[in-house]
Amino acid sequence: MGNIGSEVGRAVNWQKKDNIAYRDKALERAFELLSLTILDKRWKTGRKELCRAREILADVFYGDRIYGYSGESIERYFFQFACVVRK
């Protein structure tokens, strides 16, 4: 999850710099990592949350922001996991 958050952070930074090509590459990696995590049997109990996170991530960057999240807020969500790993 921390690695997914790193890619989301990169996407947010590239979007701020108006570099859509690099943003999309970071998002592609984030979506790939999310999909692989969802398919991993070890995440059976958290699969619903992972699917929702993927849905919100797509809405933030490619949708109409119907959920009301921003790039920064989804980045903060994933950052929590990176902090846990560091401890």
Secondary-structure element pattern, one letter each: HHHH
Cα shape: globular
The separation of the N and C termini measures 15 Å
The tally of beta strands, per DSSP, is 0
H/I helix tally: 4
Helix proportion:
over 70%
Question: What can you see in these coordinates?
Answer:
- By secondary structure, the protein is mostly helical.
- The two termini are 15 Å apart.
- It has one domain.
- The protein has helices spanning 2-16, 20-39, 47-62, 71-86.
- α1 runs antiparallel to α2.
- The model has no long low-confidence stretch (mean pLDDT 91).
- The longest helix is centred in the middle third of the chain and has 20 residues, at 20-39.
How would you concisely characterize the structure shown here?
By secondary structure, this protein is mostly helical. It has four helices and no strands. The protein has one domain (about 1-85).
